[in-house]
Design goal:
Structural class: alpha+beta
Helix content: 10-25%
Shape: globular
Strand order of the largest sheet: 3-4-5
Radius of gyration: 17 Å
Protein name: Lar family restriction alleviation protein
Pfam family, one: Lar_restr_allev
Number of domains: 2
């Protein structure tokens, strides 16, 4: 992953716009998988949307009149909450499974080796 993609994922609007100009699709907002642009309508004026390539994920962006608009919509993201599992309100719900894989039961997602997951919630 390039530096510009990392900055875009961290919510930097200029980096998100630069990725769009370069036709770089950010990873799926839901599962982190690779994304692709698809033409979703062939009747009348074509419409385009970005979706996750993983068939089980189901993440799909809204349809737009141009590929550039579809990519911009997909790449524009808010700043994610950042924190490690020990700082997460859900940390009591983490269990270790076979082969040392750590799993957040609350959100049914794998906890990455660096201690970050996709379901961070700040403690109040």
């Amino acid at each position: 992953m390039t530096d510009i993609e990392i900055r875009a994922l961290l919510g930097d609007m200029r980096s998100q716009e630069e990725c769009t100009r370069k036709r770089i699709l950010l990873p799926c907002w839901r599962c982190g998988g690779e994304a692709e642009v698809k033409q979703v309508s062939t009747v009348g004026q074509p419409l385009f949307a970005v979706s996750c390539k993983k068939h089980y994920c189901g993440a799909y962006g809204c349809a737009h009149r141009t590929e550039k608009e579809a990519i911009l919509y997909w790449n524009t993201r808010p700043v994610p909450p950042l924190g490690r599992c020990v700082e997460c309100a859900n940390s009591p719900d983490i269990e270790t499974r076979s082969k040392g894989m750590r799993w957040c039961r609350n959100f049914r997602s794998e906890v990455k080796p660096d201690g970050f997951c996709n379901s961070f919630a700040a403690k109040e």
